[in-house]
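Hi L., both proteins are below.
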Amino acid sequence: MFDYFRKEIEWAGRPLILETGKVARQADGAVMITYGDTVVLCTAVGAKSVKPGQDFFPLTVNYQEKAYAAGKIPGGFFKREGRPSEAEVLNARLIDRPIRPLFPENFRNEVQITATVLSYDNENDPALVALIGCSAALTMSGIPFFGPVACARIGRIDGKLVVNPTHDEIKDSTLDLMVAGTSEGVLMVESEASELSEETMLEAVTLGHTSFQPVIDAIIALAEHAAKAPWDLPSLTKEEIALRKRVEKVGNKLMADAYKERQKQARYKKVAEAKDRINEILTEEGLDVELAKPMLKELEAQVVRGSILKTGIRIDGRDLKTVRPILAEVGILPRAHGSSLFTRGETQALVVATLGTGQDEQIIDALEGEYRSNFLLHYNFPPYSVGECGRMGSPGRREIGHGKLAWRAIHPLLPTKEAFPYTMRVVSEITESNGSSSMATVCGSSLALMDAGVPLPRPVAGIAMGLIKEDRGYAVLSDILGDEDHLGDMDFKVAGTADGVTALQMDIKITSITPEIMKIALEQAREGRIHILGEMSKALTEGRSDVSGNAPKITTISVPKEKIRDVIGSGGKVIREIVEYSGAKVDIGDDGTVTIAASNEEQAQKAISRIEGIVAEPEIGRIYDGKVVKAADFGAFVNFLGPRDGLVHISELAEGRVAKTSDVVKQGDAVKVKVIGFDDRGKVKLSMRVVDQATGADITESVGAKPGRPPRRDAE
């Protein structure tokens, strides 16, 4: 019934199994991949024909995590998986990036890749497994694909690089790096690091590339038995070859002249005019303008790339290493907790930092379980930033991806929750864009957080590197423009401090790059980063000494665990009273840590005093302020320590004999009392007699001991 094939290898101490022919047989390619007990079903389907007028390659990658994979039922009203989570979107991008460059240049058929996580063992990263599985599914499908691709995850634990660390191991790692590529070279890098050197990062990338070679061999071995017949690649017709030559001849000078314009919007206008003129000439000659559309794109790339390689001068007139002019400003919004405006050439980010309390933490429901995050970074790319009209709504894949990259860059520098008990949200509004807006977000976020009073040890900056690579040579570009990204071969983003790298993201549009090019790019990026940090320091060199006056003031105190229930009270009654009385937000953790968030010092102090009163134990000999809550024949009950009451016996109300309690005190009176002992039931015994009620001074010595009882008459 099944034409079943299986390949198993040992990889990084765990079995990796590839299976095909049993599940999802109607897909062009389907692979069930197992690593440890993590299982992912990966499928690839290609449309058999091209849509009319299609001038781009429509590739869609879907990555979905099923709750049943971790033995869970989804939360929410519908109890089923809904729209992709942020993690799923990021993992779909992770798969897409190394696979996309490996399709033929003129291939326009729609391709859909789907990765479904069926089982998760809480150890092995399903995204890593899914990427390998999708590469294998494409290799089996017959769809034109210059793969296979594989990937590895690299950690650094106790100073040693580790291949494919488990979920628990990565928590103790100073590096979390994902690297993907072919047998020839690296195609994609994604990482977060704790200020590691460029040499260490390059070493990790190289180790990753070496470590996944057995996986590529396993996919090839499986494909030899199970792969479908390859599709015929569309070849260029004589008409297309002739048209391409004519487009080059007619358009070369027109396009070159348009690209002499240095300013982006003016350049776009001239490029559009050049294309219109080329189309006019082609129409006059009776040639197919629609067929020429992708050729015009190729012509653009040729002109720009050729000029850079020949002259070393870029579109905006810079040399290869120069960073665009930078202006950094902070404190630009009066009511925001922290704000910055970071402008680099024609790219600009307005970044705002907001400080909140523990109640503002984001609750993330992941396969490995629910956890909280106290750092949020949101990136917005409105269409006006590039002078266009467009849809605005929920964040797309681009916004989520760029936001996460900036999050990774900043995250290693953040203070611990104990040292800085705030929830931090950063929002980056891209107000202008001409390339490298994610790195402008990193710089702006660093400044906004420091402006808000977050104690970052050092500022963080980022730079995007590009590459032009032809047979005749290559050029590595610092701080690339949008066009240099689209028309170039690499987008290599490097973020970090003066001390080292905190995040890397590399996407290659050609089949691979050499370690030599990566080394040059990393070194050039370091020089650029140091320059940018110098420009940023003109605005702010370190975090403010205190948080913004508009931010809540957060104070933390500890209470004994056995007292937590006293602070909360029955059904939360006591803690609600404290909040109502003080006006502050009060949170209490399971470990007895109480977090008090208040808009001013007075509110905080009110809440602290009330809590300290609840948890404090009465000390013999200490004087307290109290309030009479009940008067009885034998004395008065006084509330003196939070909810705690004590008894002032009638003989301790005042010096001399007191006939009636009401002669000295009545309910509601404010009094000063001294703890003089405890009875056999642990009840507190108080005295007013030995305390000066006006000053609160201890007058025990002057009033002397309480006189003894007179002898009873019946004893005479």
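That was the first. Here is the second:
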Amino acid sequence: MRFKSLEMSNFMRYKGNNRIEFSCDDKKNVTIILGDNTVGKTTIAQAFRWCLYGALLTERGKKQEDYQLLNNDILAKMDANSRASVFIEIIAEDDRHVYQIRREVQYTRLYPKMIAKEFYKKVALYQSEKDDPDIKLEIQGDSEINELINELFPRNLSHYFLFDGERWSDATVDGVKENIKDSVHILTGLSAYQAAMKHLKDMGGNSVIRKFNDKIKGSGNIYDNLAEDRKQMERKIEKCEESVETAKINITHYETKCQEIENYLEENKNTEILQNKYKQCQVVRRTQEERKNSEYRALVQRFSEKAFMIFAEPMIEASLKMVKSVAGERRDIPHMHQASIDHIIKSGKCICGHSILPDSTEYQNLMEQKNYLPPADIGSLLGEFEHIGRNWKNTTSDTFDDMRESAQRVDDCLRAYEETCNQLSSIETQMNEQIDFKEKKNQLQHYRNEMKRHCNEKGELEGRIESYRKRIATIETDMRKQEAQSEENKKWRMRVEMAEQVYARMKKDFKEREREIFTELNQQIQNNFERMFNAKDKKIQLTEQYNIQMLYKTEIGGYREEKNLSEGEKIARNFAFIVTIMEYSRKKKAQKLMSDEIENDTLPIVLDGPFSKLGDENIRLIAKVLPEVSEQVIIFMLRKDWAYTGLDEYVGASYSIDKDADKSYASIRRTGGIS
């Protein structure tokens, strides 16, 4: 399948008609459209999507109705009575047919507001033979048109062959969750088996086998009742089989969930030990913090009460030296004052018991001693000061030692506290504090219980199916006795049995082919991932539903799935898938292995900003394989990134997107290729 051309009229950034003709050359199969940021590259990519599916690739948080299709410059010139239209026309071709797809919407303006109101829309599809292009067959009916478009360009795969590298997300077009298994079946030819099997047996009353059975007639009510019983059993089987498939999906889902948690717990088993250690350290830290604060308060209290003594010590020392230098020999009685002498004389008796009489020798000695006592004698005061100063100095020395010991205790407490804090920080770097192992284990038990419940349900349903089939076998034995009376019945019975055999063989072949294709795709997708991204510590694989998982190598060995991928990793993952699908489809087509099946074709690749989040080396590696795996490659990208691709020799057509600074719209200009 190739795109021949795309024509846009008044579509978003593009005013008037703009047309691009794509290279369909076998060797020069690359068309390049270059432009700067914000000039309209993505608009052209959106034109493909809108023309094919009637929907745009929306950004997160936006809806389809948030996007205005009509060019703003056209809308601004409209009045209340004006009409304007937007259309996209794509012409595509495969080996035998040419397809013309045209989608159009006409608008009025809700004047004076800058709002376009849709009043008419239409999608048209014309099919013609390549050998006779003048005769066109118009496909009638929107559902028939959409069905054929989806067959040609599977919508579930649109996120891959219409690849938006700059705005890639796991959301799909129009908010529809991606399920690409059926689309892969179309590309690989497996859908032919599915269609045939459905036609034979899986269409209920419209299936071939059911219609053949309805042709068999018996005699009387006995046969009719048997036939009705068989139909009831078949309906019950169909219902049970649907429930079995649902149970299988649920079992697979819960198995995956269990495996994820088991892997997670295994990888983080040391974290649980660390968590316990972390909690213990937290208790120690609280105790240490309380002790640290207590010792600090005691130090502050001592300092506030006695620090002045330490600061005064140098002055006391200097004063003592001064007193000693001027005091000379002391003649006073220590701790005595003049008032003490006066008291002794007044009492008439010395403290030793001798009487003190006026004019006596004792009296004279006391009066003489009085002259050496304060306040009359400064020497005595200095002596007293010296005594007090020395006592103060001794006390100060003890206070200093006490405060130094207290400060050391504070320092020791602080050091121990900081060591514990550092230990906690170290533990935090080794584990995720958000991990709740109890919650994880509860989840694991819940998933196991659910898986067991669905397994039991599946077993019960399969038992019912077996019972219903035995009942059908008994019924059919009785019916054949009735049918034996008619030769016509024998003919239809033979046809039923033949159809059943064909169905069984096709079902067996389908399972074998599906497994073969799945294994081949899974191996090839990993090979492509390795050669395009040189990834040594990661790999990708397909699930049974063809979802793509990226796995990272773990420290304990093996791999685990990484769900929180970067935009670059998502691009790498999906590039590997794109290349694999295109490569497989092209290879099978070349080998003509599916000539007897519904015709399938390769898809073109339309890439919008594919390399914006990749390094130069990855750009070169990816670009190298694109022309080899797809019959047609269409790339919208920045001018600055083109040099790294190395695709010049593959370019069959090139265009430039131009936009003047003073204009609100862009235009497309051919720069090379296609004569």
